[in-house]
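Continued from yesterday's entry.
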Amino acid sequence: KDLIDEDVVVVKPSKLWLEVEIKTELLFASAHADPTEEARVLLQRLVPVLKRFEHPVRVEGHTDHLPISTERFPSNWELSAARAASVVRLMIEQGIDAERLTVVGLGDNKPRDANDTVEGRNANRRVTLVIPSSKTLRRWLERDPSNIEDMSDEPGATNDE
């Protein structure tokens, strides 16, 4: 609740999952995937809440649409995946079981806002923790996880079951 009140995270519940969105500027310097000290402190506050539950957590990295082309990050795909992986590494260091965690790099393909303003681009640069509800978790486990594209109840889908 404190993290929400401080506007550090945004929590978006639905029937099928819970999304915990963390603003990227709190976690990483621009065009970098090494977590800031603020990221470590933030996750030290968030991880104890996540440890109370056994649900898997999918850590999604997102970027804005501005192209990046560095030796380390030739595209937004690599940057978003590296940022998600950095968050996962910190979560593991703080006691979350690695088997619960999945890294997903989405680049600029799932924008939350329009990319034509500074505010919109800032909103699109984020890391989202997606935690399935118990009902959704049971459904996911009944399916072939290698065919995740067929899951109409994935975050970002329009299915409102």
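--- second protein ---
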Amino acid sequence: MTSVEIQGNTRSEFGKKGSKVDRNNGNIPAVMYGGNDVIHFTVTPAAVKHLIYTPDFKIADLEIDGKHYKAILKSVQFHPVTDQILHIDFLRLIDKTPIKVEIPLRFKGVSPGVKVGGKLIQQLRKIKIKTTPEFLVDELKADISKLELGQALRVREVIIPNGVEIINNPATPVALIEIPRALKAAAALAAKENEKGAKKKK
């Protein structure tokens, strides 16, 4: 698991007024839930950019007032116009305590359908899982090496690691091999030619 080290500082003022002061000072208000404590703190935009602006799933290694915590990103609030980060929610990781997270889905293998001109369409980029910190993974994989033209791969066929439960509907498609128009046209033409040939033989 990849982790990002983030330095945090405890907040002295809460509420809208405190948040405004924090933002004016170039900091982002944040909160961490999990366990018996709710911790309010601030982080800098530079400290969290590699955690937020990435397609990868990463763990936050937080240091707040000398104490270390492992956490995951739960939600991020952006300004609707400027896209400035307004607030971040973290969830603390506690051993043997179940969590629900979304992690990236990646493919392995080469599809025979792609080899003959088909196009791989990924319909689900993230999978929602339930697990505990000991079994947490940063991605799931699905094998597309048997996908032919027009075929789809579903959630039930995603490779599930030990200790992980997938929450998505098993029948949901995650990928399909699209048949290009040119191939469809060629197939239709070939079918017509075969039909004409069959009629002539009669």
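The first strand starts at residue 3 and ends at 10. The CA atoms of residues 33 and 91 lie 5 Å apart. Will compare against the first tomorrow.
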